[in-house]
Amino acid sequence: MAAFDFRAFSESILTKIRQQFIQREQVLRAASEAARDEAETAREQVSNILESITDAFVAFDRQWRFTYVNQEATKLLRKSRAELLGKEMWRELFEESNGTVLERELRRAVAEQTSLHFEEFFQRLISG
Questions:
Q1: Whether pTM exceeds 0.85
Q2: Coil, helix or strand for 74?
Q3: CB atoms < 10 A from the CB of 124, how many?
Q4: DSSP structure string for 5-70
Q5: For residues 58 and 73, is the Cβ–Cβ distance under 8 A?
Q6: Between the CA of residue 28 and those of 32, 41, 75, what are the distances in Å?
Q7: Residue 66 near residue 59, CB atoms below 8 Å
Q8: What does the pLDDT look like over 97-116, one tens digit per residue?
Q9: Between 20 and 30 A from 42 (CA), which of 9, 31, 86, 121?
Q10: Average pLDDT, whole number, for the chain?
């Protein structure tokens, strides 16, 4: 009767499991890379659209920090993207807007998650 080599059997099983894990890791890495490429392509497309509009466009996070500023907005606000991104809008640009139509309507738009149309003369944007 031949002796069963448990060690060789265990090593064979472990080798197969390692190979399966390596293959799975390669599949996941490829999928992750493809998803990153897709996300980057989508980000570029959105950026191209926002840069092509002729109006100033900005986006904020929940703390009113600039997360996106198109070229037209940098012209209007007379600040570079680097000067605006990550900065809180109310502190960086519009401290003097407290209690104005601008503040009220922007806060309402965010609270109601809707777009609004309003006009207000804001001397700072005209005179810099």
A1: no
A2: helix
A3: 13
A4: -HHHHHHHHHHHHHHHHHHHHHHHHHHHHHHHHHHHHHHHHHHHHHHHSSS--EEE-TT-BEEEE-
A5: yes
A6: 6, 20, 44
A7: yes
A8: 778 888 888 889 888 988 88
A9: 86
A10: 87
